Input
Amino acid sequence: MWLRTRFEQSPIFARVAPFVIFLVLTFMQGWFGEASRYWIYALKTLVGAWLVWQMRPFVAEMRLAWSWEALAVGAGVCVMWVALDDFYPKLSELTGGAGTHSGSEAPKPWNPHAQFGEGSALAWAAIAVRLAGSSLVVPPLEEVFFRSFLYRYLIRLDFLNAPLNRFHGVAFVLTALIFALEHEQWLAGVLCGFAYQALVIRKGRLGDAIVAHGITNFLLGLWVVWKGDWRFW
Output
């Protein structure tokens, strides 16, 4: 298969291409009407899961690693994400809505119950897909790109020769800032990026950050569903 051959031939391609493909599909959400936010999310989750499976043999550091630090960081970032939310302007407010489909308005909250009917099977299916996608697919794709590739690439171009446990101040800050630009809650995103990167540096492996990221997203998803606090989705 062409994609697997490219993954094998290029360590950069193996870490960057899956993330870029996933990001393109993310930007397409909502292009074809409000309902497309949900079915494109389902599509990108399937595509993302397939990409993770295809890249695993060529990105050795993708192996999951469980530790008490990963559990603590994952839960702590979730608490921080929720607790900070009322105290700073969001990305769409700072940019005047640049990059959103509605111009100057903030992105419309993701709410399957409002879209498909309160308590409907389709609404719960969309919620299940979102939980699975954010907890199982997003973490390996993002952590491989940001902390296996980007952080080390900012240190040296032959990034595979930069150890995961090396601290580099400029790379540490820039990686977190770029990571934050993916998120409406940019300040939480910056702090989140710091926390996951520090975890990688402390443990000298990527797997703890993947696990922590998955825990954060799963707990945040449970909060969203439990409280109906859809702004975090």
In short: Residues 99-104 have pLDDT under 50 and may be disordered. The chain is about 70% helix and 0% strand. Residues 65-232 form one domain. The chain has one domain: 65-232.
